[in-house]
Amino acid sequence: MTLRLPLFEYRTPTSLAEAVAILSDSDGGAVIAGGGTDLFPKMKRRQTTPTTVVSLSAIPELSGIEIDSEGNCRLGASTPVAAVAASELVPAVVAAAAAEIASPQIRNTATLGGNLCLDTRCNYIDMPELWREASGHCLKDGGDTCWVAPRGDRCWAISSTDLAPVVIALNGTLRLVGPRGERETPAEALYRNDGIDYHDRSDDEILTQVMLPPFGGRATYRKLRRRGSIDFPLVGVAAAAHLDDRGTVGSIRLVVGAVASAPLRATAAEEFLVGRQLTDEVIEEAARLASHHVRPQDNTDTGSRYRKWMTPVFVTRALQDLRA
Amino acid sequence: MTTTVPIEITLNGVTRSFEVDVHRTLYELLRSEGLFSVRFGSDTGETGAAALLLDGRLVSAEVILAVQADGHRIDTVEGLSSRVEAGELTPEVAGLDVIQTAFVATGAIQSGYSTPAMILAAKELLGVNPDPTEAEVRDALSGILDRESGYVKPVEAVLRAAALLRGESREPFRPEVIAPLTEGGSDPGTGPATSASAAVPRIVLSSDVPPTAVVGKPELKVDAIKLAKGNGAFVDDIEMRGMLHAKVLRSPHAHARIVSIDDSAARALPGVHAVIHHENIARVRYASGGQSWPNPAPLDQVSFDNKVRHVGDRVAAVAAETPEIAAAALSLIDVTYEVLPAVFDENEALAPDAPVVHDEPDLDDAFAPSRNISHHIEAQVGDVEEGFAAADRVFEQTFRVHQVQQCPIEPHIAIAWWDEDERMVIRTSTQVPFHVRRMVAPLLDLPVKRIRVVKPRIGGGFGAKQEMLIEDIVGHLVIATGRPVKLELTREEEFASSRTRHPQTITYRTGVNSDGTLTAQEMRVVANTGAFGTHGLTVQTVTGMRGLSSYKAGAKRFDCDVVYTNIPVPGAYRGYGAPQALFALESHMEDIAREMGWDPIEFKRQNWTVEGDVLDIAPQLGEGAAEVGPLPIVTSCGLEECVAQGMRAIGWERREDPAWREPSDRPNIRRGIGFAMCMHGTAIPGLDMGAASIKINDDGSFNVLVGAADLGTGADTVLAQMAAEVLGVPLSDIVIYSGDTDMTPFDVGAYASSTTYISGMAVKKAAEKVWWKIKQRAARMLDIDMACTIELRDRRAWAPDGRSVSLAEVALNSLHTTDQEQIMDTASYVSTESPPPYAGQFVEVEVDVDTGQVTVVKMVMAVDCGVAINPVTASGQIEGGMVQALGYGHCEEMAYDDEGRMVNAAFGPYWIYRADEMPELEVYLVQTMEDSGPFGAKAVAEIPKDGVAPALRSAILNATGTAIDAIPFTPERVWSALQEG
User: Fold this and answer.
1) Is residue B238 packed enough to be buried (19+ CB in 10 Å), middle (13-18) or exposed (0-12)?
2) Strand locations in B713-781, DSSP E?
3) Do B57 and A108 touch (CB under 8 A)?
4) Is B638 on the interface with A (CB under 8 A)?
5) Is B477 in contact with B248 (CB distance < 8 Å)?
6) B244-340+410-497 classified as CATH 3.90.1170.50
7) In this complex, do A303 and B972 lie within 8 Å of one another by their Cβ atoms?
8) Do B895 and A232 lie within an 8 Å CB cutoff?
9) Angle at B892 (CA atoms; ends B890, B897), nearest 5 degrees
10) What is the pLDDT at residue A147?
């Protein structure tokens, strides 16, 4: 039997201003549905019970992909993931990462903005309602204990977005619109390493656009998962670099996803790599630097020790991709 | 708050207006509109069963609101077919389009539950890409989980449809006959397989098999057309006026006593019609396994107990006007639990201080409940200790196999009501309609004669539905409310509250002489039967039977404790104890050969059980009783040919090539090839019974009524083929109806690989009785003395002199004109034998030694199932079974937190293979003539489950030199084993 959704009000504003007004007036009770492919199952499990669901589908300027006069790739937040995957305007690494998300049906419905704002995940929060209640609700579920790390005071739920590491690696900028107007922020700055408060975005702000600057370098995304594609990543590594003719790294951005509550920039590894050629020894040291502070928790069905050990392997593979 | 809004949808070309509640999913709207091809699979859309086309794009109706479809175009399979025409029913007359027809023609449809979704995925793909590659087809199908076909034939169907739509022609989809590689086969002179498509089964014919007209032919499945059209054929596809919706309150605790239960608030909720639990439902003990009377002890269940024994166990159930009210009512039931210590591991449950799972005073038929032992099984042939003492070497090895779920895409579902005669009708997704009727009767305090159980089309079962799992709940609620009641499990319930496969700890001890003979073989098993003992005895006797009869040994001993714990309940799962045994046995035998410096296949061949060998331990490991009867002897065996075909197809010689195993351009990759032999059984001898009735109609067609339960396997088709063969008519003249306790004769149901063999023989015997009556009447009509000289073929009865009458004339004569009678007869069949099918299973892998990820590149299975009555459906069984077995060996695993709550009760974290992840599959059918079976048939349903896990282990061992004694081979497990070296 399909679980039924709780009652809510459904709004389809036709302008951004109207959407912002609905969110502002709702006092935190309204949520934005991108495609709803992640939100509706969570609502069915009563992980979240918003009073109002706001669809952005009727705001035309939020959809579409274009290259602006300065060569930036601008993607509307409501663009379906499938359209991103099929686009020839976006950098190949973005299309490839989008094509690896979930299944064709989900990609046809899910949106770019929805994936970038994807709620964090954890074994405990994704259980049926009754089981969560019997455990004593966890921190993310309104309780006072994290069942992954019961002695701590934070939530360790995992960031599972595939697109965020790639957008951060490409030095993307996000445009958000709220009651105080519009602002732009580096994609990296949107994410916080906290399973509950994982976004630097207020409840009445709407992610409207992703802007990727022109990129002439090499980029890659490597994803560890138990299976072909439907899985969320267990480790995801995005890397984007400019190399000179001799293969020396001029600049690089290296991002590790799915090992914490936010995508993690590996700045120590980035600094080490600049000015060096990607030899096996250099890659090994960079992988060590990128991984040594990574501490996955035991909150997926795959052990934390294994995910910890796989992080340098996938950093290595990403860097080898750049060299190739 | 605005809760309903008007929307407009162009639905299959017709613009429609609806007032919808905003919180309704599109799934709910479409089903309420009678579009039954949109089916439930899960709440998150991962099964894809609820797929539809929204503006031409494939989406899942389970994660889209109805209001989101406002202003859009929706297409479902119902809109594809054109009008049904008069005349003989063919795919064209039924109005199928090219894609639907291709699915029918290639045998791509098994249960058909997700077929509409696949057809729509193909429609989307071919609309934008008329000439897709196989990889593109697989990607398009990748969001639709199929537990049945292994995706081989659906992919072939889409490629075929694409070709036909491009205007190209395609050969009929037919098996390819190939030359034998060993003696005894029939050589057509065509050499090895040549066909480009692996979807076509290869057949090695036996010269012992006589020619046939319908049997052995790739006939189209008799239910394929309606399933391709998405017709309302499943349990949920009816609308009962006034129907109530049931939901079950499940235990959140692994082990607890129910101190009190207060249902007053739930009862007071408007729209709630009944709340049932242990205080208001009579305590009647039963065992839920769908098995012959008397069900094996212990009877350790009651409908509702005052104790819960696993997370997901039953606490209470409600019936209410809507699913929402039912869910709200559950949350109003106030239950106070006394939480008890729980135990999950079978070995820990045997410890002296372990929590006692079954301490109820009225349980008197379990072996030792105070020690958590539900059953103890022993069997012995000869003296193993003497054998070990005499052996040159003795090897001992322990294996662990884990818990998996059957994952039918259609979950358990039942709808029940009082009919106009005040009899209870239960329309249920079951493999065992007759067992359900008998078993549910005492729980409901109804005589059997007041119950009718109907099995419509079933969306897969795989053993999970060899149970009386939910029928008592709907029955109680019908009695309590007087209204029709529907109960369908959620996906989470299907994982945690349905049935699963028994985990086991298996220890083998084998005495070996330096000449390669086995002096003794002992198997000790501790099996985890979870909260209840259902199937606990019989699954484990099959483990012993398969684990100790596949090879000859001077002495054999089986010792098994079946142990209660607090995990969700294991039961029947296709393979039924054999996959566990064969993983341990084949791995153990390979390791012995390696240790002794022998070739593993040669060592196995020296000892494996073949034609003429005695199954010496079989009588002691029969169903239930340990009676020593006459020793069965193997009478047909195509294993040598299976192994030869498999070795050639997989490229076995590469195994010894270091350059192939360690490709120089991919330093982290190791390649390997593995093998396992498989030997299974065919039905339960002396117990399984099937019956069939056949009657003639005015036009010379026949109704065939069978108790057998087709759950997507093609049973109805092969049974109808057998009737058609005997009666000399084409398959289209057989109208088969099955699995309805009022309308068909008895059958034990679909399990133990028995339907083709047992029910098939019943059909054959019934057809022969009807055949004889037709011949007698035809002889009179043709004025011939010797009725035995009449032959039936081509819809006519022929005299030796060449004169004939049509079967329609015979029917009209018998029904209307002369000595009127209904030509009709019934026959039953029970077998004293269980002839083993055999197979060689081969697996090729690549192992990433940096990550432990195993990629299965190719699987080849060559199967001796006697004569395949329908080679296309048989190969579909093998392909689908192999992929389930691959999931078991490679990646599927029920995982729990410390409290016994499953952490991956959803597809995604619980991994079943998708179309785009599949290895290449090749199937070979090696014919043998099994004289005890109908037309030479043996079983095929379960043997594909047996060999993949050990062959996978063997391949990983070949690739890496690392032997792993537990499954599944997850990246984490393989990586850890590689680190330990």
Assistant:
1) middle
2) 734-738
3) yes
4) no
5) no
6) yes
7) yes
8) no
9) 130
10) 84
Evaluate whether B175-204+635-681+832-981 and B352-404+500-628 have a shared fold: yes
Of the partner residues A108, A133, A224, the one whose CB lies closest to the CB of residue B58: A108
User: Cis peptide leading into B294, omega within 30 of 0?
Assistant: yes
Query: Which among B131, B110, B441 is positioned nearest to B303, based on CA atoms?
Result: B441
**Set of chain A residues whose Cβ sits within 8 Å of the Cβ of B490:** 1-3
CA distance B199 to chain A (A): 22
CATH architecture, range B175-204+635-681+832-981: 2-Layer Sandwich (3.30)
Rounded CA gap, B960 and B980, in Å? 12
CATH number of the domain at A1-58, please? 3.30.43.10
Substitution target in B42, B57, B487, B854 with the highest count of A β-carbons within 10 Å is B57
Interface check B45 vs A, CB under 8 A: yes
Q: Which of residues 163-222 of A touch B (CB under 8 A)?
A: none
Beta bridge partners of A183: A176
Nearest chain A Cα distance for residue B490, angstroms? 5
Tell me yes or no: is domain B352-404+500-628 CATH 3.30.365.10: yes
Give chain B's mean pLDDT.
95
Distance from CA of A253 to the nearest CA of B (A): 24
* Residues of chain B positioned with their CB less than 8 A from the CB of A108: 54, 57-59
**CB within 8 Å of B118: residues ≥ 6 apart:** B103, B108, B141, B144, B146, B154, B157, B158
Tell me what pLDDT residue A142 has.
86
Q: Find the CB nearest A105 among B58, B253, B904.
A: B58
Among candidates A38, A45, A56, A177, which has minimal Cα distance to A119? A38
Among chain A residues, CA nearest to B137? A104
Q: What is the CA radius of gyration of chain B?
A: 28
Strand partners, A75: A65, A210
| pLDDT at residue number B630 | 76
The residues spanned by each domain of chain A are 1-58, 63-117+158-323
Q: Which two tokens stand for residue A61?
A: 């300027």
Residue A160: both structure tokens together: 């599972």
Among the partner-chain residues B24, B140, B903, the one whose CB lies closest to the CB of A123 is B903
Across the A:B interface, residue pairs with CB atoms under 8 Å apart total 176
Residue B626 binned pLDDT confidence (cut-offs 50, 70, 90): very low
Give the closest of A109, A130, A147 to B59, CB-based.
A109
Tokens for B369, please give them: 């409940």
Q: Topology of domain B689-830, per CATH?
A: Aldehyde Oxidoreductase; domain 4 (3.30.365)
Write down the domain spans for chain B: 4-171, 175-204+635-681+832-981, 244-340+410-497, 352-404+500-628, 689-830
pLDDT (0 to 100) of residue B195: 59
Q: Dump pLDDT digits (tens) for A203-258.
A: 899 999 999 999 999 999 998 876 655 567 788 999 999 999 999 999 999 999 98
Of A55, A82, A226, the CB nearest to B911: A226
Alpha helices in B482-617 (DSSP H): 491-496, 536-549, 578-596, 600-607
Q: Is the minimum CB–CB distance between B51 and chain A shorter than 8 Å?
A: yes
d(CA B167, CA B154): 20
Nearest to B971 among A103, A126, A226 (CB): A226
What are the structure tokens assigned to B852, written together? 């432990």
Nearest Cα of chain A lies from the Cα of B728 at a distance, in angstroms, of 45
Q: What tokens does B59 get?
A: 């989406």
ipTM for the predicted complex comes to 0.94
Q: Which CATH number fits domain A63-117+158-323: 2.30.38.10, 3.40.50.720, 3.40.50.10840, 3.30.390.50?
A: 3.30.390.50
Fold of B4-171: Ubiquitin-like (UB roll) (3.10.20)
Rounded average pLDDT over B949-954? 98
Residue B658 sits at φ, ψ, to 5 deg, of -60, -35
